[in-house]
């Protein structure tokens, strides 16, 4: 047994020595480049999570969307500012009543397996989604689709059952898979991606890396400009930064906020900031006591200093959330912030009947950023007497706890520190599933159990409207109603931080947090 | 068979024992130094919260992540809290968890060991086989398993660490009991009709006491380390508390930018465990020289 203690003692000693050494060895090694081992036209991108699937019509996480967007394209797509532009369609027409969408398709486009892209290929894709009976995530976008007609080889026409204002955004979220591959691989298409995009699939080592190569027959002959792209999953913040410093990775996302300062001094590395559609908030279960009292919710909003939140938790990167959605989201309307006012918060608590506060739990995942945020909220709310217990749960357990209750009364969640970003970039994606009473878990993400009949009917009205001005007006009212009801503690809007080596150009992160590599180019 | 004589005049000899122990222990210089360090930690654990320069829970958002200075001896953390004060206040948590878990494990393990060693036969076999099963698991893995069942929290960390301490105490005490049981004075006590429980607790137990003390000190180090590891993994103390392991866990993201956040909690854990091990080694040399490998 004594050997054991000796070993432990030695281990402690060695760990302490290593710690002391790393502390001393800061600085000079930053600028060394080790990219010599790689081919000149290959790039490596380090990301913080694993890809979950490569089936473009069944992805639900933003990172997997990054990968599928490199291999697949939809009829329309998003540009850098999340505005819609034609991709596999050359142009499109929407009828006045908002029911008929006609797309003229791009000619001479081939899938990676040689199949031709035409109207029948489009139909095969939409048939696949509708035939899935809701099991593919893309089928949620097509709830209002009545039928799809092949007019000629290069023209397709979609008819909706009722107008749906965000339909074009949803089309952008539906990439086209080779009909030949759909037949060949069936359900396993997620492991054998075949699209029309600038990059072809090579290999996916699940949990480790994803390798793509150049599509030589890409329809836009100016692209792609690199031969090979490797995505690597590196969850540890420090390792990702180290890879960027040594040149092992050419692009990293996300870049930890606390490393920005030290990386800025490096001459080989540039840091990009993108305003995002990612909003951070604490959802308050408005169905539970004492949170059903609006004054309590307002008090919580006033008690939280948002400037300090951005400064401490986000290291200065981000902005205050002044509506239910980010300024980058469609139909955003500024509401003004619940500015930090402790006296007002205390007064509201008193009026609500809780002059001495109460105890509650705040939930979140185990990511270090979330833990930091939750503790900050804990510290701030302690000032008005609310004693929070921070409960960090592993992602799987957490979503099970939140989404499994069948009725609002079974829900145990009180406060949830979380973020949301609408990948389709439209106001509907940032509103309906968060605030409509139809979206109570398990049907959606309305974890505040927010129910406001006026908001419900306004959301329906906005979906039916075909006039952008009218929609803007409706969404303005929706945001105003929700913001004044305070079903959330409104915290901030993320600034997306990514880092790249200076010889790499053209890779960027979209406001929703997905990476675009189409324009990647090495100098 | 000096033992028999010892037992005949219990009190005076015992005082002599303590004196001879002190005389021997004083020569172990490092062990004595470790002993004083440990005493200092105990004092800090007792009076720490009232002597700290800053409130360990009060954030100061204008001074976040500052390096060590005269104002903040160990720097400030990501919320601007004084790391030095947090470490001092955390002593109570970390030592408390370590001591209470080892004590719990020692009490349960000693009782099992005494029973197992004294009664022998199937009782001994059953208890020792169960201990073997527990020995088959790596300590931390076993603790994680127990916490997975009980749920995270400091209280459950104490239970988990106590449970993985039981078998090692049981085995050591059993060995000593087997040895003592065969001695003449036990034979004599038995022959004058003393009850079994009297023999076990009044006569066998005191003989195993020095072994237990040595073992306790040594296991204390591992227990503190284990409790810190569990808190580091997010299974123990709440991340906002000033537990050493939890402090390390929250600061690992700043390893490259603010080394003091990892360094000082790491250092104090290291020093505590090291001092306990050295102290344990010294105690063993004096009290229980036979058990040295």
Textual characterization of the structure:
The complex is a heterodimer of chains A (523) and B (293). In chain A, the strands form five sheets. In chain A, strands 1, 8, 9, 10, 11, 12, 13, 14, 15, 16 and 17 form an eleven-stranded mixed beta sheet that branches. In chain A, helix 8 packs antiparallel against helix 10 and helix 14 runs antiparallel to helix 15. Chain A has 523 residues and is α+β, with helices and mostly antiparallel strands. Chain A has three domains: 133 residues, Periplasmic binding protein-like II (D-Maltodextrin-Binding Protein, domain 2, 3-Layer(aba) Sandwich); 107 residues, Dipeptide-binding Protein, Domain 1 (Dipeptide-binding Protein, domain 1, Alpha-Beta Complex); 221 residues, Dipeptide-binding Protein, domain 3, CATH 3.10.105.10. About 3% of the residues of chain A have low confidence. Chain A is 30% helix and 23% strand. In chain B, helix 3 crosses helix 4, helix 4 runs parallel beside helix 7 and helix 4 packs antiparallel against helix 9. Chain B has 293 residues and is mainly α. Chain B is 75% helix and 0% strand. The longest helix of chain B has 37 residues. Chain B has a single domain, classed as Orthogonal Bundle (MetI-like fold). The two termini of chain B are 24 Å apart. The chains are: A alpha+beta (523), B mainly alpha (293).
